């Protein structure tokens, strides 16, 4: 009898140790010591429905959609908001309406728009000759929590300006105004009335009209003019407005927008008409479906060159580093986007930057939202996520990563810093996750990280498939990034550290049957206790609490998949594909 009881106890003990998930009580809180609870170590209560659909499975990994087939986009990751319900920031992830301004000239007129559209986000862009617009003057007028100012020495066509502004917006509806739109009380009153009509119609787009024709043009979209009012949420999720496999490079704004609206199964309306607009001649549709957003026609950047990659840098008030940062980035033949999260150093950036740079002044939204919005704005096939203190020694690491992407079409992301395989059997209270094997860049503090010992047999380059990788650098396929809804805004409030966004996106890629890899980038790190989330003990402790909370939240988000099933997919890929 005692032997039997001993065997039963032993079996139970083994089963508990084998389970990768933390033990939770009925309340949803993890059982443990007072220290574990005080450090934020508990699993959030399970949602009232599965937070994500069942994982996509199959015998082979999914690959990017390289065809020109219209493909739906997620507005955001599918799980319900948990943390954001308690955020106190005035920044809104999805404001009701956005005002998109190309080359605005009179800052004093903004008050008319702000009064007519309270709570709106304002996104203004100055390019080429207009990039010398007075930054301080405009920031004093557009100082809301959702207001973005964009500067680039590169001259846009109006089609490109329109497309980029619509992409970076976050509002459900957007109104595009170029420099020729005269902002007066009467014209803005018309804008507001038209915006309200479009909301009621639940349509796709609204055009103003010039000329005597009272109804929709029957011979194409030549008689349709701006300003344009767009139900962005509806068109975006159906793959339209330049977000899918198509761009406006061969069409005017009106023609392209009309096609995007119709391809999304929505209607377009025009001023003075209750009827939907039709393009009976197909003047823009002919051949347009063969154009992809990764093709040269749609991804041209500086000097008319095709943009293979876009570097996106998270910058926060390291003003003394602007010159050396810009100098390092100029080594890359790439489009370069700076998320200037602290709204500083504008003159320094404009002094040292060339036409490849786009300086986006964001109002302290931090990396999750900054990376996501600039990832939508970008034109490169690959997104390279960097931090402002990253110091790459050369550009070879990036060309090596592209070779590996070509070897494995199912790769959605490659990390260039560190990664983990969650193979542990015990739960680490200090990090909110199971213990595991860590690989990648050695630490100066003496933490042990295993070497990357496997190779891709096609390129003979060192790499491993990893369950989770750390930022930065992170190199992502933009196509996949948009398909999956970008980074998860539910992991932090606006302005707070987004610790764990890299792990969550890694898990989500495996969950959707994409792959994640790890390679060496040989960066020179310049972390210091006086910078970023290491600035003082208060910020550091908040960082640690966020890390523990998010790591434990993943068990709820990806219930039944994280971490055991997901880790085994990475291990299996290493055995199958690498030597």
TrEMBL record:
UniProt xrefs under Gene3D superfamilies: Spore Coat Polysaccharide Biosynthesis Protein SpsA, Chain A (3.90.550.10)
Keyword match Signal: yes
Domain of life per record: Eukaryota
Extent of Basic residues compositional bias: 27-48
Keywords: Signal
Sequence segments annotated as region (Disordered): 24-65
Source taxonomy: Eukaryota, Viridiplantae, Chlorophyta, Chloropicophyceae, Chloropicales
Designated name of the protein: Glycosyltransferase 2-like domain-containing protein
């Amino acid at each position: 009898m005692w032997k039997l009881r001993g065997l039963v106890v032993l079996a139970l003990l083994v089963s508990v140790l084998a389970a990768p998930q933390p033990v939770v009580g009925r309340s949803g809180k993890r059982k443990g010591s007072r220290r574990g609870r005080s450090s934020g170590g508990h699993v959030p209560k399970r949602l009232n429905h599965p937070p994500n659909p069942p994982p996509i499975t199959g015998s082979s990994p999914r690959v990017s959609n390289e065809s020109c087939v219209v493909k739906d986009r997620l507005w955001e990751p599918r799980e319900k908001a948990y943390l954001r319900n308690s955020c106190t920031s005035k920044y809104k992830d999805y404001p009701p309406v956005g005002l998109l301004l190309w080359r605005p000239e009179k800052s004093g007129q903004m008050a008319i728009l702000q009064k007519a559209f309270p709570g709106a986000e304002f996104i203004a862009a100055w390019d080429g000759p207009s990039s010398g617009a007075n930054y301080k003057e405009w920031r004093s007028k557009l100082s809301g929590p959702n207001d973005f100012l964009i500067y680039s020495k590169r001259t846009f066509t109006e089609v490109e300006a329109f497309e980029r502004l619509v992409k970076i917006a976050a509002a459900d509806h957007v109104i595009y105004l170029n420099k020729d739109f005269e902002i007066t009380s009467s014209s803005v009153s018309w804008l507001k009335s038209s915006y309200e009509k479009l909301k009621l119609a639940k349509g796709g787009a609204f055009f103003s009209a010039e000329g005597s024709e009272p109804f929709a043009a029957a011979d194409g979209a030549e008689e349709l003019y701006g300003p344009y009012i767009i139900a962005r949420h509806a068109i975006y999720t159906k793959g339209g407005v330049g977000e899918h496999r198509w761009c406006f490079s061969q069409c005017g704004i009106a023609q392209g927008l009309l096609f995007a609206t119709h391809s999304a199964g929505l209607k377009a309306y025009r001023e003075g008409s209750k009827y939907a607009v039709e393009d009976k001649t197909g003047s823009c549709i002919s051949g347009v479906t063969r154009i992809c957003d990764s093709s040269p026609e749609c991804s041209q950047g500086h000097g008319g060159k095709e943009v293979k990659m876009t570097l996106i840098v998270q910058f926060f008030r390291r003003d003394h580093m602007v010159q050396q940062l810009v100098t390092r980035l100029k080594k890359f033949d790439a489009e370069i986007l700076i998320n200037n999260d602290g709204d500083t150093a504008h003159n320094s950036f404009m002094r040292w930057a060339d036409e490849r740079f786009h300086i986006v002044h964001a109002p302290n939204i931090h990396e999750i939202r900054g990376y996501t919005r600039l990832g939508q704005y970008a034109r490169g096939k690959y997104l390279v996520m960097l931090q402002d203190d990253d110091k790459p020694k050369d550009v070879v690491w990036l060309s090596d990563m592209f070779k590996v992407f070509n070897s494995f079409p199912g790769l959605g992301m490659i990390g260039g810093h560190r990664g983990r395989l969650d193979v542990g059997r015990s739960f680490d209270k200090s990090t909110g996750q199971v213990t595991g094997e860590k690989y990648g860049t050695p630490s100066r503090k003496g933490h042990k990280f295993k070497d990357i010992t496997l190779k891709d047999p096609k390129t003979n380059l060192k790499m491993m498939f990893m369950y989770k990788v750390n930022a930065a650098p992170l190199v992502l396929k933009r196509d996949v990034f948009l398909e999956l809804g970008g980074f998860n805004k539910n992991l932090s409030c606006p302005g707070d550290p987004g610790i764990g966004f890299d792990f969550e996106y890694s898990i989500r890629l495996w969950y959707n049957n994409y792959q994640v890899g790890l390679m060496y980038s040989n960066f020179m790190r310049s972390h210091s206790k006086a910078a970023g989330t290491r600035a003082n003990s208060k910020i550091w402790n908040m960082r640690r609490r966020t890390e523990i909370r998010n790591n434990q939240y993943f068990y709820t988000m990806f219930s039944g998949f994280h971490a055991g099933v997901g880790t085994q997919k990475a291990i299996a890929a290493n055995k199958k594909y690498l030597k």
